[in-house]
C-alpha cells in the first residue's frame, strides 16, 4: 500500500504538501499565518487569547467551532498558561482537554502551533505510515493516551534526525504520502459504475 521509506519519497511528500498549500491559497495562507505569526506570539506570551484559540480551532476542525466558542477568554488563558508552563507531557495534554471541544488530537494541534519543532498534530494516517515503516508496532485510529502521542513524536523525531529535516516537514510529507497511496488503493478496490447497471 505505502512506498518504502526513503529520502526521495519524503522529499516528494514535502513537495506535494507545499503544492497543496499553493493550490489551496486560502488554507495555505491560514496555515502560514498560524505557524509563522500566531504560534510565535503565543509562545512568547505564554498563553492563547480567545481569537487565536478560535482561529486555530477552526483551522484544525471547523465542524467543532460552536464547541470552541463556549470557552471564554479567561478560561482559555488560564488553561493554556497552565499547559504551556508544565514540564510534564501528560499534564500539557490533559490541561488542554479541559477546554470545551478539545480532545487529545485538538490539544496536540495547539501544542504543535506553539512548539512546531517539538510537537506534532496527532493524525492516525501518519501513525499508519509509521507502523508501515516499522517505527511503531500497533495500529490505532484515535489518540487514547498521552503515551501513544509520545511514541508517535519519538518515531517522527527519529525520521527527522535520520534525514536531517524538520519534524513538521516529516509530518507534512507523511500526510501527503498517505493521501496519494491510500487514494490509489481506494481507486483500485472501488467498483465501476457499469457494474451496477
Polypeptide structure, described:
- By secondary structure, the chain is mainly α.
- It has one domain (7-185).
- The chain is 69% helix and 0% strand.
- It contains ten helices and no strands.
- It is globular.
- It starts with 6 loop residues before the first helix and ends in an 8-residue tail after the last helix.
- 30% of the residues are buried.
- Residues 186-197 have low confidence and may be disordered.
Characterize the main sheet. Answer: none
Report the uncertain regions: 186-197
Taking Cα atoms only, what radius of gyration do you get, to the nearest Å? 18 Å
Tell me the number of strands. 0
Share of residues in helices? 55-70%
- Report the principal-axis shape: globular
* Series of H and E elements: HHHHHHHHHH
Assembly state of the chains shown: single chain
Ends distance: 30 Å
- Average pLDDT level: 91
Number of helices: 10
* Domain tally: 1
Structural class of the helices, strands and pairings? mainly alpha
DSSP strand content:
under 5%
Q: Helices, strands, pairings?
A:
Blueprint: H1 7-23, H2 25-45, H3 50-60, H4 65-68, H5 73-85, H6 89-96, H7 104-114, H8 124-132, H9 146-163, H10 167-189
Helix pairs in contact: 1-2, 1-10, 2-3, 3-7, 5-6, 6-7, 9-10
Features:
197 residues; mainly alpha; 10 helices; globular; disordered C terminus
What's a quick, concise take on this entry?
This protein is mainly α. The protein has helices spanning 7-23, 25-45, 50-60, 65-68, 73-85, 89-96, 104-114, 124-132, 146-163, 167-189. 69% of the residues lie in helices and 0% in strands.
Amino acid at each position: 500500500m505505502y512506498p518504502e521509506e526513503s529520502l526521495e519519497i519524503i522529499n516528494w511528500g514535502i513537495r506535494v504538501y507545499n503544492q497543496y498549500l499553493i493550490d489551496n491559497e486560502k488554507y495555505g495562507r491560514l496555515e502560514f499565518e498560524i505557524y509563522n505569526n500566531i504560534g510565535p506570539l503565543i509562545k512568547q506570551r505564554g498563553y492563547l487569547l480567545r481569537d487565536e484559540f478560535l482561529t486555530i480551532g477552526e483551522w484544525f476542525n471547523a465542524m467543532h467551532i460552536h464547541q470552541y466558542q463556549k470557552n471564554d477568554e479567561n478560561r482559555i488563558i488560564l488553561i493554556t498558561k497552565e499547559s504551556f508552563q508544565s514540564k510534564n507531557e501528560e499534564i500539557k495534554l490533559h490541561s488542554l482537554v479541559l477546554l470545551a471541544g478539545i480532545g487529545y488530537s485538538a490539544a496536540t494541534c495547539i501544542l504543535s502551533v506553539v512548539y512546531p519543532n517539538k510537537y506534532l498534530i496527532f493524525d492516525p494516517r501518519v501513525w499508519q505510515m509509521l507502523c508501515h515503516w516499522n517505527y511503531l508496532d500497533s495500529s490505532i485510529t484515535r489518540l487514547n493516551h498521552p503515551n501513544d502521542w509520545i511514541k508517535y513524536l519519538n518515531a517522527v523525531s527519529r525520521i527527522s534526525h535520520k534525514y536531517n529535516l524538520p519534524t513538521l516537514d516529516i509530518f507534512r510529507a507523511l500526510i501527503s504520502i498517505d493521501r496519494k497511496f491510500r487514494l490509489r488503493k481506494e481507486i483500485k478496490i472501488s467498483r465501476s459504475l457499469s457494474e451496477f447497471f
